[in-house]
Design a protein that fits this description.
With about 270 residues, this protein is of the alpha/beta class. About 45% of the residues lie in helices and about 20% in strands. Helix 3 packs across helix 4, helix 7 packs across helix 11 and helix 9 runs antiparallel to helix 11. The relative contact order is 0.17.
Length: about 270
C-alpha cells in the first residue's frame, strides 16, 4: 500500500465542501464514481443485492448510490455515513426531492466509527470512496462489524494496479486526489479475510482508463465553460488540473492504477 503523510480527513472534507467536489460531479454526475449506473448495477448483481434488503453505504457522499439501490434493486432501507457535512446535507435534499427520504437516513460521522449497531445490515456498500479513508484496517473492521452473519460487503475502489506505482508517482497521484493512501487488491483481500469474511470476488473492472479518457474528452470538447465557471474562470488552475488528470490518465493506461470490485461474505 502506497501512503502519503500530508493528507488527512480535513483535506477530503475541503474537497467535497468546495469547487473541486463540484468539478467531479460535473464530469461524473451525481454518481461520483467510475462507471456510474453501469458500475453500480454490476456491483449489485455480483453481490446479490436485492429486494427487501437493508444496507449501509460507507462514504455515501450525496447518497446517489443509495437512491440507485432503492430504485433499481428494490432495497428496503439504506443508511449512509459520511464525514462531510456539505454532501450529507445535499444528499438529504436530493432524497427529499426524489421522494425517498422516508427510506434513506444519513449519519454525519467518521466511517471508521459510525456509531451504528452491530450486525444489523444485510450488506455494507461502497463505491470508489474508501480510497479517501486513512485507516483502511479500521474501515474494513467497521464494515464487518456492521454486517450480519451471512451478510455481504460489496464495494469498488481505486487501487494500485498490477504494474505498481513508483514512490514519486504515488506521491503525485495521492496529493492530487487527496487520498491518504491507496490499497491494492491483495491488501483488501487480506483485510477482509482478517475480519472474518470469505472473499468471493476481487477483480480489476478494466474501467479506469476508458473512463478517464471520457472525462478528459468531455472537459475538452463540451464542458470547458462549465468547469471554468466553477473555479471562477481561473484558466491557470484549469490548466494545472488538466495536467494532473492527464498524468492520472497515463497511470491508468499503464496499469498502475485501477478500479477494483470486491464482494465478501461475513462468516
Amino acid at each position: 500500500m502506497k501512503t502519503t503523510q500530508s493528507i488527512g480527513l480535513s483535506d477530503v472534507q475541503a474537497v467535497y465542501s468546495g469547487p473541486e467536489g463540484d468539478l467531479w460531479e460535473l464530469v461524473m454526475g451525481h454518481q461520483i464514481h467510475i462507471g456510474g449506473f453501469k458500475s453500480s448495477m454490476d456491483l449489485a448483481e455480483k453481490a446479490g443485492i436485492g429486494k427487501g434488503m437493508t444496507g449501509i453505504d460507507l462514504c455515501c457522499c450525496n447518497g446517489a448510490g443509495m437512491r440507485f439501490l432503492l430504485r433499481f434493486r428494490n432495497v428496503a432501507r439504506m443508511t449512509g455515513v459520511d464525514a462531510t457535512e456539505t454532501v450529507v446535507e445535499r444528499g438529504r435534499r436530493r432524497c427529499e426531492e426524489e421522494g425517498l427520504s422516508d427510506r434513506i437516513n444519513f449519519v454525519l460521522a467518521d466511517v471508521c466509527e459510525s456509531g451504528l449497531p452491530d450486525g444489523k445490515a444485510d450488506f455494507v456498500w461502497g463505491e470508489d470512496a474508501w480510497c479517501y479513508v486513512v485507516d483502511k484496517p479500521k474501515l474494513i473492521s467497521e464494515a464487518a462489524r456492521l454486517t450480519k452473519r451471512g451478510g455481504t460487503i460489496a464495494f469498488t475502489d481505486w487501487v494500485e494496479g498490477p504494474a505498481g506505482l513508483s514512490e514519486a508517482e504515488a506521491e503525485r497521484f495521492l496529493k492530487f486526489m487527496k487520498f491518504p493512501n491507496v490499497q491494492d487488491v491483495q491488501g483488501y483481500r487480506e483485510l477482509l479475510a482478517e475480519n472474518g469474511c470469505n472473499v468471493l470476488l476481487a477483480e480489476n473492472t478494466g474501467r479506469f482508463a476508458p473512463y478517464v479518457d471520457l472525462y478528459l474528452g468531455m472537459l475538452d470538447m463540451q464542458l470547458t465553460y462549465d468547469a471554468l465557471k466553477i473555479i471562477a474562470f481561473n484558466t491557470e488552475l484549469m490548466q494545472s488540473l488538466a495536467g494532473e488528470m492527464q498524468f492520472m490518465q497515463q497511470l491508468a493506461h499503464s496499469n498502475k492504477i485501477a478500479q477494483a470490485l470486491f464482494v465478501a461474505r461475513k462468516k
